[in-house]
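Troubleshooting: if your tokenizer reports a length mismatch, compare your output against this known-good record of 277 residues.
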Amino acid sequence: MFFSGIADEAGEPIDVQVRAHKELGWKHIELRNVGGVNLTDLRDETFEEVADNVTSAGLAVSCFASQLCNWSRPITKHFDIDRHELMRAIPRMQALGCKFIRIMSYPNAGWPEDMWRDEVVARLRALAALAQEGGITLVHENCDGWAGKGPEESLLLLERVDSPNLKLLWDTGNPVAHGQDVLAYYEAVRAHIVYVHIKDCVLKGGKPHYTFPGEGDGKVREVVGDLLERGYDGGFSIEPHLAAIVHEGKSASEGQNAYRRYVEYGRRLVKLVRNLT
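Known-good structure output:
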């Protein structure tokens, strides 16, 4: 088991992101945006600078938090956007020795349920084939998209894509934000979880209000404890949402004390896990 984090929530520059993880004493980092640009969209020269900064600090990249099939890409978006992004990502992942890339499964845009489902499955089957060729694994987050609707959809996606290069990423806070039964969903899919995002929240007026881990309704202690008891040896990657929320347009540069809160969040997670072991 190891700790990691979606580092742009500590700050936009890569040196700030690296510094936060070094201060936490962690050996892993999850990369998403640098300077407000997703890792897969950086110019080659900029990516090389980022990679050098990360590797020189002795950090391993646990996951690419990509834009693939995510909340900003409804099912009506052309598939080539995601196919080309994955083709750009794979050599960068190989260069960094990173095996996991986070994906979602397309928000709907007024399509009938069966048409939406079938198109999602077809697209993810094609992406999984590319992932297999590249020696990497797609990890589907329980978030926006067809397969994030609930455990039945998540499991059906795995069954229909039928690829060893598609697994599940469990986000502890998303079921709360989406009004789902946290433990029922988790227990149904836990056998397929290979990576975990740690966030926590409570609903206030129907909207998520993000908290430190264990202080919300995400059942963080229960989920983490169950995973460890079952022999989970993957990553717990923080996504605090306390100062920066990318999908709401809030970057770390706009949130006061983002760095401090990120590090504090990491320390609290470490304490929570130690109290469970």
